């Protein structure tokens, strides 16, 4: 009986060797969801943020203005169903406060 259970579980494990790989449709759907999440965040959407997807993992790269924007990007992507892990490789480069001088006549 024990051998039958082991054989059964092993058959489940190897039943679908493609289960760990994305189908083209699923990858496209995930891409659309990520693009939508980035565009919905007004702070992140204005930044230079790129991403790539590899087997349910998302790699974020680019430049944002603050650590808050970096975290916001990661959290908005991490909430998407189907994203297993987010690798946040965004660089933070704060915008210098530029003060314009105005001459008063």
Automatic annotation (TrEMBL):
Residues 26-94 form the BON domain. It comes from the Bacteria. Pfam families: BON. This is BON domain protein.
